[in-house]
Amino acid sequence: MNKPLSKPELKHGRVVSPASRGSVAVELGLLGTWQVNEMEGGKNFPSLTAGPFPRPFETDASSVVPPADGYILSGGKTDARDCINFTDEELSKKLNRPYAWPLLNVNPGQTFHVQWEYTAAHVTRGYRWFITKDGWDPKQRISRAQLEAQPFYEDFYPQVPYYQHTDELKAKVEHEVKLPAGKQGRHVIILLWIVADTGNAFYQAFDVDFK
Predict the structure, then answer these.
(1) Can you give the pTM of this predicted structure?
(2) CATH label of the domain that carries residue 50
(3) Which of 26, 64, 145, 193 would give a disulfide with 42, using CB separation of 3.0 to 4.6 Å?
């Protein structure tokens, strides 16, 4: 196999529209944009273990260990970026004033359009979307038990092996998803940008209110 010998450069990105938790944290002065660009963790989520990415993409770089429960929204980062995982109560304590994550108003089944800004884009396998379960508890940090077991949408490039298709596997500046039809009230959406040539995905989180 003609695998590349050079180590892939670390290149990063974040969603700039609509407002993610990362964007809110930047506005609050809790994080810099570079930190939101680097919320990366193992791409095999919701698995807890490192290893090959599932078939038919097992020739992609193997996943590092995915984020632990309670640190999912920051991609497993436990430094200043842990603020992304905060409950409203934790965030209020950090800011020394009452504060809740602002909610994006959405409708069940609507198209949700996102725009990314990349410092430079990795070779991309695709994107995967998760959402909280009905009856989830906003007073608890996000864990696997708080999420629907399966992603509600996946958008993967089919070409394999990645190292023969690097010009085609491009990160998408804009893309969209249809939100689940049966949701009501407050939920958290997690979007993973899954990289083909490293063991990571980049994690972005959105707080929404289904009308």
Answers:
(1) 0.93
(2) 2.70.50.50
(3) 64
For residue range 192-210, list pLDDT tens digits in order: 999 999 999 999 999 999 9
Position 98 confidence tier, pLDDT thresholds 50, 70, 90: very high
Distance between CA atoms of residues 89 and 91, nearest Å: 5
Residue 66 above 80 pLDDT?
A: yes
Kindly state whether residue 8 falls inside one of the protein's structural domains. Answer: no
Residue 1 lies in a domain: no
Q: What is the pLDDT of residue 185?
A: 98
* Total domains, the chain: 1
Q: Domain span at residue 94? A: 14-210
Q: Are 186 and 207 in contact (CB under 8 A)?
A: yes
> How would DSSP label each residue in the chain?
-----SPPPP--EEEEES--HHHHHHHTTS--HHHHTT-EEETTTTSSS-BPPPTT-TTSPPB-PPPPTT-TTTTT--SGGGGGG--HHHHHHHHTS------EEE-TT-EEEEEEEESSPPPEEEEEEEEBPTT--TTS---GGGB-SS-SEEEE---SSGGG-TTT-PPPSEEEEEPPTT--EEEEEEEEEEESSSSEEEEEEEEEEE-
Q: Would you say residue 112 lies in a domain?
A: yes
pLDDT of residue 11: 55
Residue 160 counted as domain residue? yes
pLDDT tens profile 11-52: 589 999 999 999 999 999 999 999 999 999 999 999 999 999
